[in-house]
Design a protein that fits this description.
Blueprint: E1 2-9, E2 16-22, E3 25-34, H1 40-56, E4 61-63, H2 71-76, E5 80-81, H3 85-90, H4 92-102, E6 111-115, H5 121-130, E7 136-140, H6 142-156, E8 170-173, E9 183-186, E10 198-201, H7 212-221, E11 230-233
Parallel strand pairs: 1-3, 1-4, 4-5, 6-7, 6-8, 8-9
Antiparallel strand pairs: 2-3, 10-11
């Protein structure tokens, strides 16, 4: 079961727990009451009580608002965030195609660079999806990347060659220190950088107030959503929810 911890304005001193369905996923939602002007020490104590309540209930991973400032207290209580890295890397190819559409660049005329320290399963899957669709696909992943490029040429007969430095239409970075490109997706670490693109569900909105990437990641992990249900809204899109 996933936990949700939310700071809410209200009376009372004790956190309140309630089981709720979150887009088909059972969650334990804990509201921590706060008041304007409350001292930082008192507020942290209330967060600690809310975190302890989640832990006692068997929760280990928690969703919060994107700007939630008290993760140190949650970690001390034995709680951890939902890591969105695997989710983002699994959707690398759809992200690249969304960026090309935003650039008004047809895939068959586009260049995409896959970058990483090695050829992970996610990088290989992205290459396999993109190679038949884009004009040029480059793989920069050391010796394993050279082997993958050779396999792609033999399998698809496609142009697998490095574009000019900084000239790739899209760079999909599966590790740090990626080269430049028109649109660069940093798909690794605790907070992947999707270059301003917002993942969203095509058929419904998302609950307001929760960090979008971890929420979608846990729904995807638990099989509540599928990749084809996702869309990627371009930078500066204004959301109603």
């Amino acid at each position: 079961m996933i936990g949700v911890l939310e700071l809410t304005e209200g009376r009372g001193r004790k956190p309140r727990a309630e089981r709720r369905w979150l887009l088909g996923l059972c969650s334990l939602w804990v509201e921590v009451p706060v008041k304007a002007g409350m001292g930082e020490r008192r507020l942290r104590k209330r967060v600690e009580r809310g975190a302890a309540l989640l832990f006692r209930s068997g929760v280990r991973r928690v969703l919060t608002a994107a700007d939630f400032p008290y993760w140190e207290e949650l970690r001390r209580a034995g709680l951890r965030p939902v890591e969105p890295e695997t989710f983002c890397q699994a959707l690398a190819a759809p992200l690249a195609l969304a960026a090309l559409a935003w650039q008004e660049c047809r895939p068959e005329r586009a260049s995409v660079l896959l970058y990483g320290q090695r050829v992970s399963h996610a990088l290989f899957w992205a290459a396999e999806q993109l190679c038949p669709r884009v004009r040029d696909l480059a793989v920069d992943a050391g010796a394993e990347g050279e082997e993958l490029a050779g396999w792609l040429r033999a399998e698809f007969g496609a142009a697998v060659r490095p574009p000019e430095v900084g000239q790739a239409d899209v760079v999909l970075a599966f590790g740090p220190e990626a080269p430049a490109g028109r649109t660069v997706f940093h798909l690794y670490g605790h907070r992947p950088d999707l270059a301003g693109f917002l993942p969203a569900l095509a058929h419904c909105g998302l609950p307001a107030g929760l960090d979008r990437l971890p929420l979608l990641a846990v729904l995807w992990e638990e099989g509540k959503i599928k990749g084809e249900e996702l869309q990627f809204l371009p930078p500066n899109t204004k959301l109603l929810t």
